[in-house]
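hey can u check if this looks right to u? its 251 residues, i copy pasted from the old doc so theres a chance i mangled smth
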Amino acid sequence: MSKVTAPKGYTLRFTKTVPNVPHIASRLKGFPERCKMGPGEEYEVLLLPQEIRVVDILYRSEQTVVFLGKCQNNKEVALKFTTTHDILVESGAHDALAAIQGPVLPKMYGVLHGQDGEGRKMLCLVLERFGKQLETRFRDLEKNEKAKILNKLAEAHRTGLHHLDFVERNVLVKRDDYRICDLGHVQPHNPRCKWTYDFVEHVEDDDVEEGQRSIRCKGMRAWAEEMRFWDHGKLLLCQVVWVPKSDKLPS
């Protein structure tokens, strides 16, 4: 009986279920059937060498595409292609924030290195596939859902991350849990974030006491206000006018 040898690298095979639209991954050498890739020197790839089937597009823009990949054990991963610079920035941010990968950020499995048809380097960031992009505006969410997202953002701040593109499309939702994604535009949180206010524990609060020690982060305070976590004792009528709450007004 002939011995079956394990693959030495990684192969991306794009299936016919992937939408036929322009994307940068089509530059890969061997696209679409056998795109050979391997680990780089920066990070260990936390997946066994194997063929990964690419079955769908999760997100696409002019410079970026994120695919849904399926490993040989049916484990789902997100495969992100964008500029080399942005891949290096984002993978570096994930690495620096390893402590919150999983509960706050998607887990990073590594960076795959390949080439385009002309021999130029192409990188692929391999991440945990978690849920889908948030489609509801932050301010339109139920208050307890706002609280969960804000607590995730506060944890990221305390770990040293200041996300410069914190918008709905960069929040992933799966059932009643959330992850913050797209770390291509971040910077260190300086000075160190001192926010300790727990939004979930204060979900019944209409206001917050000014000057209290638990809310000492301008960025977190700004996002809580932007998401309308507190109404400050006022009622929004027709999404236009704020009026003081009164027993004479409908709730």
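The chain has two domains: 21-128, 132-244.
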